[in-house]
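ugh ok so i messed up the first submission bc i forgot one of the chains. this is the corrected input, ALL of the components this time, i swear. 484 residues overall. if the numbers dont match what u have on ur side tell me asap before i send this to the collaborators (the ones from the other lab, u know who)
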Amino acid sequence: MTVILVIEDDLPVRTTIIDVLKNEDFDTYGARNGIEGLHIAREHIPDLIISDVVMPGLDGYGVVRELRHDPKTATIPIILLTARSDRTDMRQGMEYGADDYLTKPFTINELMNAVGAQLKKRIAITQKYETTLRMLRKNITYALPHELKTPLTGILGYAHMLLLDYDKAKPPEIQDYAQWIVKSGERLQQLIENYLVYAQIELIASDPKQVEALRNHIIKNVDDIIREEATRAAEDANRAADLILELCGVALQISAQDWRKIVGELVSNAFKFSPAGTPVTVAASRDEKSFRLRIHDHGRGMTADQIQQMGAYMQFERKLFEQQGVGLGFSIAKSLVGLHGGQITVTSTPGVETTVEITFPI
Amino acid sequence: MPTILAIDDDQIFQILVKRIFEPMGVKVVSAYTSDEGLEMAASTQPSVILVDIRLPGKIGDGWILARMFKDDPALQAIPVIMVSASGGGMGLHAPDDVPYDGYFAKPFKVETFRDHIMRLLS
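and heres the new structure output, hopefully the right one now
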């Protein structure tokens, strides 16, 4: 049953609201002030909270602020009741994280409409999270073992070949088997490395001191790493001729290791998802305030939905396209850019092109 | 000469299949997508078809492809062996209505894989 908490110091108003809600088959709790409201909210986690703004002790804004800071109550919809019709006051409540407000006096219809709209929104949000979670679970359960076993098939397969043929194989054959074992092993290593880096980034991101320490690095010229990583990515894809480089010689507050990872992952993706013979542009530029790196390819492109879903353990259109590494590379680059205070945007036209742009303040 | 059609998007696997079977006097042809696989099955009339389950391609994954082979009077007699890195653990979750002639979970023991396919070819 849907549970609604009503926080209101005025007894007749509180009783009336609770009666109306009970009449509509809602379960209710009443609280006489902000402090009592917070206790009840934390203990019973209601589906919706209706709170007065002006109350002795902790007021409605305080209630919203406290609830939003607590992960347990952060997503509960809150409707504020205010006698003030001042827009600035209402805005303040919304800025703290209230979802709607009603100005007293209000009609039963207005109250029920506001309650209905918030509950409907909550159901929609819950469903969206559940769908994402289901997809994530499915990807971790099925995609991850698949990604790990694919290179393992190469390692074990060629190692078995060596064991079967060791007495009659000629040196070039042995070398060939060994090369494939190494190649498969490197692919597996790259995948495992990326998982570790991703886990590490998640840990750093949750510790402000570590984030600060991370930002204390400077590279004198971003170009060297851009050139090295873009060239490496192009050569790995056997597409050195497709690379177009534009450099600008800027110093940037970022660690060399992280800059290398960001450029490497993003440029590799551009080559991975575009056909040979089409250009991949890696263009660095600057203006007075910011440094910009644009990576552009003429590949498969993505829909807006796919861009939104890009992330660790997510992959899309598996039936149409092969994607190695379950989207981890992009997630790593995105997290690193964020940790260093930069921004990353992806724009794309399906089947035509994709542009990834990162911006850092200078 | 007996021919194996290997339909798999992983290049390392494709080369492994060549290294295993070509010294045994078997021709191996490779297809990297389900669309390519369908086309090459018709044009090469192979003796055995290896089908990866998670395949890229517009017509669908390996299960859809296996179903198409078995529905085609010109191809339905050819043994279809499913090969996938997605199985293992609790086993393979095959759709009930897809007929296929065998399944190998990647990674597999080369000797077992080779002997099984060679028996089908003889």
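quick check: Chain A is about 55% helix and 15% strand. that seems consistent at least. The domain at 3-106 of chain A is CATH 3.40.50.2300 (Rossmann fold).
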